[in-house]
Amino acid sequence: MTSIGIVLIIIAAIFTFRALKVVPQQNAWVVERLGKYHSTLTPGLSILIPFVDRVAYKHSLKEIPLDVPSQVCITRDNTQLQVDGILYFQVTDPMRASYGSSNYIVAVTQLAQTSLRSVIGKLELDKTFEERDIINAQVVQAIDEAALNWGVKVLRYEIKDLTPPKEILHAMQAQITAEREKRALIAASEGRRQEQINIATGEREAFIARSEGEKQAQINKAQGEAAAIIAVAEANADAIRKVAEAIRQPGGELAVQLKVAERAVDAFGKVAEDSTTTLVIPANMSEVSGLIASAMKMISGTRGPLVAGEPAQSSDSRFGR
């Protein structure tokens, strides 16, 4: 092989190397022809014209996390905050990313810092801790509008840290401590108030229960006494009816006379046994028999109406009183 052949092989290899381009996945290469934008190579094998076309820019289409440097922001109430965050973006237009900005990464970083200062300057200190999601959304919106000309899409922004000055931290800690003590005092007072309410409610319910019990006891006692009176009255009436029926039986009058005589003799005997009682015996014992006869006359006088089912006349009416 001559030297000319070797030179031709080398030239052919150089032409092949410069003509054939393999673009990796999730990448885009910008091709310039004679110094002017020509095309964008997508992943795969592409053929270029050697020494006429050249790959000017190479871009990754993956999502890129970008650490935004820490900076001092001033809130609406003139409080300084040390803020840092992280930005996520993605190249969506390789041609604009190549020619829209000399360095889109620096541009996005600077825009994120200025947008963050602007958003925090509209909020008070307390709101900056409470509304992180709102801050992140507003920063993304502000960056995304400008980043369209750079072929970049801002996906999201996250605040990593908000650090106020030490004096503010001490004041916030004191405020939190005072707030917790206040809540503890309020909770204790509410507990005592509820305890007093529960005690009063319990005493009222107990008093009502006792009064209801006493009332029911009185009602039950009255009903019992009424039932006892009715039972005694019914028993007396039944006894009287049975005595009346017994008197109307044959020999009933004689039995009554004997019973009255026994009661009279027992009465005289009891009076005689009492040493402190002066007993006057009738001179005529026939008076005792007369007393028995009068009682029997009253019984015989009331027997007729009882048999007939009519009300009995009083003894006073029988004797003309």
What overall geometry do the principal axes of the alpha carbons give? rod-shaped
How would you classify the helix and strand content by structural class?
alpha+beta
The H/E string reads: HEEEEEEEHHHHEHHHH
User: What's the β-strand tally?
Assistant: 8
Largest sheet: 3 strands, antiparallel
Report the sheet-strand fraction.
Answer: 15-25%
Nearest-integer average pLDDT: 79
What are the segments in which pLDDT stays under 50 over at least 5 consecutive residues?
302-321
Distance between the termini: 182 Å
Total of DSSP H or I helical runs spanning 4+ residues: 9
Please compute the radius of gyration using only Cα atoms. 63 Å
- Work out the helicity level: 55-70%
Side-by-side strand order of the widest sheet: 3-2-5
